[in-house]
Amino acid sequence: xxxxxxxxxxxxxxxxxxxxxxxxxxxxxxxxxxxxxxxxxxxxxxxxxxxxxxxxxxxxxxxxxxxxxxxxxxxxxxxxxxxxxxxxxxxxxxxxxxxxxxxxxxxxxxxxxxxxxxxxxxxxxxxxxxxxxxxxxxxxxxxxxxxxxxxxxxxxxxxxxxxxxxxxxxxxxxxxxxxxxxxxxxxxxxxxxxxxxxxxxxxxxxxxxxxxxxxxxxxxxxxxxxxxxxxxxxxxxxxxxxxxxxxxxxxxxxxxxxxxxxxxxxxxxxxxxxxxxxxxxxxxxxxxxxxxxxxxxxxxxxxxxxxxxxxxxxxxxxxxxxxxxxxxxxxxxxxxxxxxxxxxxxxxxxxxxxxxxxxxxxxxxxxxxxxxxxxxxxxxxxxxxxxxxxxxxxxxxxxxxxxxxxxxxxxxxxxxxxxxxxxxxxxxxxxxxxxxxxxxxxxxxxxxxxxxxxxxxxxxxxxxxxxxxxxxxxxxxxxxxxxxxxxxxxxxxxxxxxxxxxxxxxxxxxxxxxxxxxxxxxxxxxxxxxxxxxxxxxxxxxxxxxxxxxxxxxxxxxxxxxxxxxxxxxxxxxxxxxxxxxxxxxxxxxxxxxxxxxxxxxxxxxxxxxxxxxxxxxxxxxxxxxxxxxxxxxxxxxxxxxxxxxxxxxxxxxxxxxxxxxxxxxxxxxxxxxxxxxxxxxxxxxxxxxxxxxxxxxxxxxxxxxxxxxxxxxxxxxxxxxxxxxxxxxxxxxxxxxxxxxxxxxxxxxxxxxxxxxxxxxxxxxxxxxxxxxxxxxxxxxxxxxxxxxxxxxxxxxxxxxxxxxxxxxxxxxxxxxxxxxxxxxxxxxxxxxxxxxxxxxxxxxxxxxxxxxxxxxxxxxxxxxxxxxxxxxxxxxxxxxxxxxxxxxxxxxxxxxxxxxxxxxxxxxxxxxxxxxxxxxxxxxxxxxxxxxxxxxxxxxxxxxxxxxxxxxxxxxxxxxxxxxxxxxxxxxxxxxxxxxxxxxxxxxxxxxxxxxxxxxxxxxxxxxxxxxxxxxxxxxxxxxxxxxxxxxxxxxxxxxxxxxxxxxxxxxxxxxxxxxxxxxxxxxxxxxxxxxxxxxxxxxxxxxxxxxxxxxxxxxxxxxxxxxxxxxxxxxxxxxxxxxxxxxxxxxxxxxxxxxxxxxxxxxxxxxxxxxxxxxxxxxxxxxxxxxxxxxxxxxxxxxxxxxxxxxxxxxxxxxxxxxxxxxxxxxxxxxxxxxxxx
Length: 1225
What we know:
Layout: E1 20-28, E2 34-44, H1 49-59, E3 65-66, E4 69-72, E5 83-86, E6 93-94, H2 99-116, H3 123-138, E7 142-144, H4 146-151, H5 154-158, E8 168-170, E9 177-179, E10 192-194, H6 207-219, E11 223-227, H7 247-261, E12 272-277, H8 283-287, H9 289-319, H10 325-328, H11 335-346, H12 351-362, H13 380-383, E13 391-396, H14 398-405, E14 409-413, E15 420-425, H15 426-440, E16 444-447, H16 448-453, E17 478-486, E18 491-492, E19 495-496, H17 498-518, H18 524-533, E20 536-541, H19 543-550, H20 557-585, H21 595-609, H22 634-654, H23 669-673, E21 688-692, E22 698-702, H24 705-712, H25 717-728, H26 741-745, H27 751-761, H28 773-776, H29 778-783, H30 789-792, H31 799-802, H32 807-817, H33 853-864, E23 874-877, H34 883-895, E24 900-905, H35 922-931, H36 934-953, E25 970-975, E26 978-986, E27 992-999, H37 1004-1022, H38 1027-1034, E28 1043-1046, E29 1053-1054, H39 1057-1069, H40 1109-1117, H41 1150-1157, H42 1184-1190, E30 1206-1209, E31 1212-1215
Parallel strand pairs: 10-11, 11-12, 12-13, 13-16, 17-20, 23-24
Antiparallel strand pairs: 1-2, 3-6, 4-5, 7-17, 8-9, 10-17, 14-15, 16-24, 18-19, 21-22, 25-26, 25-28, 26-27, 28-29, 30-31
Helix pairs in contact: 2-3, 2-17, 6-7, 9-11, 9-12, 15-34, 17-20, 19-24, 20-22, 20-33, 21-22, 24-25, 36-37, 38-39
């Protein structure tokens, strides 16, 4: 092939126009501790520190690079391409320290193998290719996938080699499948693999063999996906007798193996995709696999912390004993110990552990270190459960989705004989998928029929699987090596440089094809099929950054049209290049029998490039055509059409060298090497973000497209400086409000310490990450600032707070130094330009804007029409998205012809907390109430209670304590779909003195805030704040959850939880019937002496003669609130078989009568009797529910034994009769 120069000049060094600098590559944790450091790293001067850090930490070869090398002559190979090996006088080995070494070995190996394979017409073409590729790598125009950086060129440049690892390759000259004799001569450059698995335990190609093949891939930094649907389901017959243990048991074994492999080494990964067809009998268990595993993690984390707390409370009680050591461990004598043991048992701490602690104490131990766990993704808690080392996807067909639409049946098919194992409702399975995606971000969806409608080689079988990120979809036992072009690097002088883009596309297509020829593969099957089909994965990155720079919103017609045009050009040029190579080297071996199918797919691509809505061949779901009207660059649309004209014409003439040429990959690490603001086809997810590395440490990236975008939008330099300063901060403490040079000098900071602080602020997300012992030095912190060493090592220690700075000071300084991390509210910025900077999530603490769910899907659809494979993309959803929203996102993707997608709802995984932090300052409180999530709203409301009620309303200086044993009632209700339990406590005279609020199965943050809210109200009541003041303050407040109220006989609607609670209290204790929707009656209670006006007490004054002994007893043992401040008109006591009822009088024993009515009332609860009597008329008996409520139970029947003896047990219910529980305890 003829290769032209576009970036370099013949006879000059490829790097002649570039400047290189030496830098220090250092990666730190947020706490300042060093993760990785390398001095004198040589990189282009245009590279950011992040890119420099990544290439040094991830891609530099750390060992085996000889200090001196010699070239090895090879006949027929140009001298500049001769490979090297350690020289005879080599005096040692080291690692790579210059990016030039990496660029040279990559491009050199490609050129070497390309020359041997006949890809270059002349030596000059090879030299041109070598120079152009090095230049593109150095200028960050494109980058190959990580395994290329890890493995390619190590043997060619340094002679690095090792024993064979079981790999194979097909000899490019003979076409013979050959077993590798070394580990690096033929590198493993492929990132993406799809492997098959047969329903066989230990045979070749079977289940256990797959784990070995996966390990071979993981070791070299690659990922793999497998469709496991061929494995028989749980309970299916085995050939030797017995029944199969099913799919899930084997998946868990493979997951464990992957987790062990990724735990070490610099290149090891465990990127893995597990796929299951929707008609597999184990599909329901597969869908809920990760949901259940995340629940286990939550239990492990919570349980470990409860054990730590309660077991040490037992030790604390023993230490607090003031007596003999023998008695200290005797719960009969040590009351505090007894309470601690009782508390441990209530929390379900195993009795064996309680006894073990007592045994430890008897042996002289004073405490116990019980291991506690957290929800970090690489913590022991996650390591102890399965399903954490793979992405999961369900493969669905059009027939399944149509069954969902029609609410039809769906058959699950046995793998052994093809018979129906089970018939379920398609919608029920779809509901499971939506719920699982909502709850834990897995599984994703792959649209089987859509994928195969664009299949170029259907004669060789269906496409059933994908790689871990779902962008490579092809036949089983094939591989794909990826490369991505950085779109923003082709944007110069306010114009996208299409000629450079086409040139780069052509060269990188050649590069990926050469990589197929030179590669070795982990199995015979993959080696053979990769040779036969030669699939490539060229893509791009930074579409979000390009659109931002050009002034187009990601969610705009112009943005989607540009994306479609760029994708169409790339794939069209790549297929044309593939056809050009086929004219010289021949089409791929599998082309002949698939030629008609492939040309049909090409015609469909070309039809979409012409913007057609009709005329597609054999497509059930039509693609989204190129938007010719809204494209902001009409030259690109014309180029897209001509590129597909060429691709089709050349393919018809010569065939194609490759069955597939393009995908859009996630470009995570290589996106950082290219200094991409955005990865793949993604928008930016924040203007400031962190990337966590598996080995520890974080990368922080601030989007640098913002200044360029503002300039293109016409803002002046001074305005841009202010806007950028607002967003990214000033990176200097000098003139910051609150915390600045002047105030720090007053604390003893010298010029040296101030310089250290300012030096570290440039990349800081929060100034608290800079004020630590690693930046300032331990000696300064302990000696000058006087901070004890143990405090410095406490991860929760805040140095600035220690110095006396308030939260307001720190926040103000943070905004000045580190920025607000959003452009919302920035000076000078026009509202119509805000959408250009929209991200996947709200930005910073103050940001509210974010891209809609549909905007992600429509962008994917715009590109999918021009991609051979698929698109790796996460569809970001806000935390308040519903299960139905997840299902609709999947359905929209299907309707637009997207091949696969995955959802991530903010906060759906334990290891990834909510993106939006709780807002604490007054200015933001109203914003939280308007748009925050439930947790945030509860936090704000609870925080304002003291200010609104307690501080302003307290008039009493003395607090009236509640009696140790008090009356009250529990009211259960459902408000807006959320269960609320309100419990009251009363003084002896029936006045309200405390409330308790619990929410059933809500988040810990919200429940805790409601608990604290209740405490605040209770304290106010006990200091004498009238209940009326609380009622007036909190009724009619509006926030979610709100809506219809179920389970309350008087209140049927509420505008918030607080509105409901104080309506209930007002009706029950103040007789505020104006706040009730239905006048209170209750079981067997009615009005006495009802007043004519609303709000007037309905309790008539009783004469002395009417104050009976029974009423006195009733007042003592019943709750005023439960009776809704009403007197009973009828009390019926059923007496041993009598048909009638006995009226209570002065002659009847009131205690005995009430014992009959409420059996659990203790005789000791009776109060002094009165001699007067009252007449109580006869009526029908009380039902069991009402009786149970009067006894103090919840009033619901136990699901196991049927008794009405359920009591609250944490967030669950427990039966005092049979011990059954509604929860997991």
